[in-house]
Amino acid sequence: MSGPWLAAHEGWYGPPLEREARLGLVGWLAAHGYDGYAYSPKDDPHHRAHWRDPYPPAAMAHFRELHEACVDAGLDLVAMVSPGLDWRGDGADLDALVAKLAGFRELGVRAFSVNWDDVPGEGDAVGASHGAAVAHAVGRIGGDVRWMAVPVDYAVTSATPYLRAFAAELPDDVGVEWTGASVVSPDVTVEQHRRLAAELGRPVHFAENFPVNDVGMSDVLHLGPYPHRDPGLRDEVGVVTVNFMHRPIASRVGLAVAAAFWRGDDDREAAWSAAVAELPGLGPLARACRSWVTEPGPDPTLAAWAEAALTAGDTRLRSYLSAGCRDGLDPALAEEVGPWLDRWDEEAASMVRALDIVEAPAADVLQLWSAAGRWARCRRPGPQVFGTRFARYPVTTRDGDALVAAAGAVVHGDNLTDRLWAAALDTLP
What we know:
Structural class: alpha/beta
CATH class of the largest domain: Alpha Beta
CATH topology of the largest domain: TIM Barrel
Order of helices and strands: EHEHEHEHEHEHEEHHHHHHHHEEEEH
Shape: elongated
Number of strands: 12
Largest sheet: 8 strands, parallel, barrel
Strand order of the largest sheet: 1-2-3-4-5-6-7-8
Number of helices: 15
């Protein structure tokens, strides 16, 4: 299959998936162009906070089951460990790192990563220590496996002293993971990738932070098209990992549109429509949840219908809102996205009331206050639908060794409900 080696990445801040959900995703990934499943949820204590402690037997039994399911589906399981929160770098730590990875190697796993993301450390001495640890693990685990390494400085436009020292210690075939210029990158270009790969003198992989929606962006359900990425990257990047949401069924939209792009499809809208159509009943919610950091506004089709309703009495938006968002939804999917379905219902009802006021502006004052109160409740913090009112994204830049917020890190604005209410209020005398 054309394009890079492609893996779904269970790598968010939050609890790991349940066993059944993880296993249920494996076959789907294989059918949608994926080559691997990478495991590193930040809140798995044995992966990160207590990385030195061996996984208990029950967990290792599941990893064996997961590895076998991946093999049966033609995927690689990527075993990851994140030792950087309290890394000492002594012989005991190196032995613990090797032992952790060796447990997966004994299961037959043939893809590994040592992750140093989001941990303390800067400068060339720390970079060399982290890179040497990866090299030690590679030497002890053995060859004929796929290796990746996530540095502390994984969101850069050029190599830092840490990153140069880190890369210098790695064996030649170990790729460095990179999210682009930002933790969540609004855009990623061939020139950015070429520059970093040339500076490091080794493969640079792309770690896509979409459709993941953890931490400050957790109120935004990413069910929209794939972000704009330079198509030339397909010929430049050898490995891509796609960090999905802690909602494995809903994540299939983002995973599908990512795979469509990396396998050569440049029609974002068609790929998105096809991905949504695979999940019966999801269409209304997906339209309301297609926002992302660079496209925070409401769905263009809904916005056009709203404009037509306000200027020409068009009824398409009213009919769409009145039809609801739950018809035909699989119960398991409905449970995953329940908070957004509830907010969809609230905001749809409020928009219908706004349309009523537009059509009959001489509303009784008590009725108006009551309707506006419904709008006010829609504006409380919580799930974002019909456009993003407020969310915090890790859009970053660098100030020397420090990773700092960049323009676009805070998304704020009016959603479709707010726009309709503004128009409704303009009709009042």
